[in-house]
Design goal:
287 residues; 6-stranded mixed beta sheet; alpha/beta; single chain
Length: 287
Amino acid sequence: MTAHDTPPSADMTITAQALTEFCDDYLSASAFKDYAPNGLQVDGGRPIRRIVTGVTACEALIDAAIAEDADAIMVHHGYFWKGEPMTITGMKGQRIRKLMQHGVSLIGYHLPLDAHPKIGNNAKLAEMLELTITEALYPHESHPVGNVATCLPQSAESLTQTITQALGRIPLHISGHYQYLADEAADTAAPKLLKRADTAAPKLLKRIGICTGGAQDMIEQAAAMGCDAYISGEISERTTHSARELGIDYFACGHHATERAGIQALGDIIAQQFGLSVRFIDIDNPA
């Protein structure tokens, strides 16, 4: 578990409702049709002077916030997702019970935090990877949750190194530069093996699609937008075949790893705006 502090400038407080109103406006939350409610999800019932931020409102983050005597937790992945059971029982009941018992409010922002052009997950990841966002991945979207960016022409190996340094983990790279080649040493009855066509000229990447988190299925749109590569968090079995057949390199960089920066940036904005104590706590997650 790692932490990042933004110290308070004064012993200030704010209500959960006022803080939510500020964030709603800053992130244009009302413009999104999301999979979970954005804003105040659990009202702890007390003024907020100390905030813990994190990617996901898991029990470990709640325990850490309680240990920090936080009045609120602000996350990217909160509760009450579409399709999940409506009852507050089991794991969800345990989490919410701890929040209520300790008077800790929970505030969550999902798509609005992905899409914000300055502090959003995509914007911050692009900044970390030295990519310049030029347009929306889906051009018709007024608040795009995916983007197209450009960079200096570079090899897949160079981009892999940049991602590794920025995120502290090696991405899974699927090359789009593959073809079927016969293995002359193999039994002629055996199936042909899929091999990288190393004899071809190395492909340089300069137009990059990007959407953090679990957006691997946007790879087809990235290819349609003429991207040389696509960066997201997760990978499915089908993603490998899509990358190879579409001829686009894919980098699976981790759902959690690609979505740490947005909530940290939002916490910094809040600390500067209201003089509150904000502490980012990173609960390690390899996925």
